[in-house]
């Protein structure tokens, strides 16, 4: 996303899962690349002239989230396909009351 553009973070709980969403207003991720952004060393070539990373951040995040029984996906942040929203869903641990009846 361009420097100083907003990044929006939201969270919601539904039953025994929590959903986190992180959205930006950048150029977005082309549809064919959305599944691959979680592969090690994969970098989107969007031509946005921003310095790229190593392609490990989302792969590491996916590994941690998978290990906790969750899921992560990339989708457009807006109806016109711009921006990116990363959606993370994680199971919630039972509360003490639920665990002990």
Give an overview in words:
With 101 residues, the protein is an alpha+beta fold. The protein has helices spanning 57-67, 96-100; strands at 8-14, 17-23, 71-76, 84-91. It has a 4-stranded antiparallel β-sheet with strand order 1-2-4-3, covered by helices on one side. The protein starts with 7 loop residues before the first strand and ends with a helix. The model has no long low-confidence stretch (mean pLDDT 85).
Low-confidence stretches: none
Main β-sheet, spatial strand arrangement: 1-2-4-3
Largest sheet: 4 strands, antiparallel
Number of strands: 4
Question: What percentage of amino acids are in beta strands?
Answer: 25-35%
Radius of gyration: 16 Å
Q: Kindly, what is the distance between the CA atoms of the first and last residues, rounded to a whole number of angstroms?
A: 47 Å
Question: What is the helix content?
Answer: 10-25%
Q: What value does the average pLDDT take?
A: 85
Please trace the helix and strand order, writing H or E for each element: EEHEEH
| Mass-distribution shape | globular
Number of helices: 2
Would you tell me the structural class of the helices and strands?
alpha+beta
Please sum up the structure shown.
The protein has 101 residues and is of the alpha+beta class. It has helices at 57-67, 96-100, and strands at 8-14, 17-23, 71-76, 84-91.
What is the topological layout?
Elements: E1 8-14, E2 17-23, H1 57-67, E3 71-76, E4 84-91, H2 96-100
Antiparallel strand pairs: 1-2, 2-4, 3-4
């Amino acid at each position: 996303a361009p420097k100083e553009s907003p990044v929006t973070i939201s969270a919601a709980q539904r039953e025994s899962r929590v959903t986190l969403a992180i959205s930006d207003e950048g150029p977005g991720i082309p549809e064919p690349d959305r599944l691959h952004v979680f592969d090690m060393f994969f970098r989107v070539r969007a031509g946005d002239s921003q310095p790229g990373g190593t392609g490990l951040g989302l792969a590491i995040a996916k590994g941690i989230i998978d290990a906790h029984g969750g899921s992560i996906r990339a989708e457009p942040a807006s109806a016109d396909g711009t921006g990116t929203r990363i959606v993370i869903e994680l199971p919630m641990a039972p509360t003490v009351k639920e665990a002990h009846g």
